[in-house]
Design goal:
With 137 residues, this protein is an alpha+beta fold. The chain has five helices and six strands; from the N terminus they run αββββαββααα.
Length: 137
């Protein structure tokens, strides 16, 4: 089969919304995987000042979900210019991801992206193959 320049331009024009759809679906996969890494913090009592006391030590690589704010804040942006952003606007998300002076790293975003590479590849492959077949025929 020979694809002319006109046909190629048609394919590229048809692929843009498909790529954006694949980015949107991929972003949601990563977002959902990151949210699933949070575990409910275990309350073991109250401090002398009446604040909740949590079980210690907390296992590494576990994000303890005390308030739910960080987990809820994880969002995927809408695709724009063939890009998508998945993350949280909360600054303490960065400290959980990378660690700090007295806080060990408990990454949740990067592992979520890497663990979903096979799913993301499948999303792109399926959507793009289907669209290219439809346009070429």
């Amino acid at each position: 089969m020979t694809i002319t320049k006109d046909k190629f331009d048609d394919i590229m024009k048809a692929l843009e919304p498909t790529i954006n759809q694949a980015l949107f679906l991929s972003g949601n996969e990563i977002k959902n995987a990151a949210k699933s890494k949070f575990k409910k913090a275990v309350v073991v009592g109250l401090t002398s000042s009446g604040k909740k006391k949590y079980k210690n030590p907390q296992p590494l690589n576990t994000i303890h979900d005390r308030t739910g704010f960080l987990r809820i804040s994880i969002q995927a942006s809408d695709p724009k210019d063939f890009q998508i952003t998945v993350g949280t606007p909360l600054n303490y998300g960065l400290y959980n991801e990378l660690g700090g002076a007295n806080l060990p790293a408990r990454p949740f975003m990067k592992p979520s992206a890497y663990e979903n590479i096979p799913k993301i590849n499948k999303i792109f492959t399926t959507l793009l193959n289907d669209k290219i077949k439809a346009v070429v025929q």
